């Protein structure tokens, strides 16, 4: 990100500066760097007026002087090292600072000149950084991966990193290769998908209906529906090899086949044709008429619905449709909302409600149709609930294989339901390896927990380097 500033008190001096910064790049950080670099050149005991178009920078600066701004809260502010440096300069030079908000892109002469300098700063080769060792008021800092200083909320930052690692581990599983491929091809919008998995359409926070709905979402997304291939693997003594699809009676029933079965496609086509009318009505009824001159020019066709016009025999024939079926949100279903200039917040509200009604029909019409055949099969073969609960004793002695190895290269983990696989998002056991141990040290009370470090295993202690005063951690 580039930044720049110009001294306007005496234009004849032609004092201006531009540069660029990296790491945690944002427009606010660029504004903070501009403030920092301009204060450095100010004479002692000066009264400085800074004109900026960043309201966020102004609000953050004002909050630093609030009586509730404790040192602990200060460390949770984004770019806290830069703000520490700014406060240090102000105190050292005895400066009086006043901020004035300028409307961005409003034709202000000097603001436009600063924007031009910022753009020029992006083209420079050198990147400007600050050394935390020079900031005496900053007693500690954390470096990630030997290169990146974390100068923001530690818990939120580490949560993002751990989540990225967990999702990479999850998607690397062989059974989820379709989701990984969709992710690489950028078919899935993970922001909306996350909102969908957290969506609760029911009036109560917890209820049997909500739990049932969440179970459906989780099983679909993990290819863990109790199809006959999974039941045969887990209960071979009960089904005795029967794995023929109940709907088409010609192929092995599996999670992948269930969504591409010709009979399933027929049922899904009727469901999606019904909801396509609802989908288009939602967009037309909520489009922004102030920004859209002619509603007829809006393209609201979506591959999720139009794919039924062609033959569907494999998942690759209708990738966007398959994303919906496994409870992932494809970007293509969001695009018509964007073209209709519907606000993002309203888009999420409308789309999540629409998806809930869609999946409810899929569950009630398609899945229950399959389950009707399954219940009939159990009655014909005298299979009851106790048949699954009272199994031979040798099945209870099966141990989890390679409990610690959940990599896709492990042959015992070829299927997500295999014994030995552990979902990283559902694993309560946190192994203290080098890559996640630092989250323990960076909790909000990490400065008060130093004696706790000595109680850990020696091999874990050896993975940490710190100086004599224990203020700097490099993990």
TrEMBL record:
Transmembrane segments: none
Basic residues compositional bias, start-end: 392-401
Annotated PROSITE patterns: RNASE_H_1
Location of the RNase H type-1 domain: 1-123
Record GO terms (molecular function): nucleic acid binding; RNA-DNA hybrid ribonuclease activity
Matching InterPro entries: RNaseH-like_sf, RNaseH_domain, RNaseH_sf
Entry-linked Pfam families: RNase_H (PF00075)
Chain segments carrying region Disordered: 390-411
Protein name per UniProt: RNase H type-1 domain-containing protein
Organism per entry: Rhizophagus irregularis
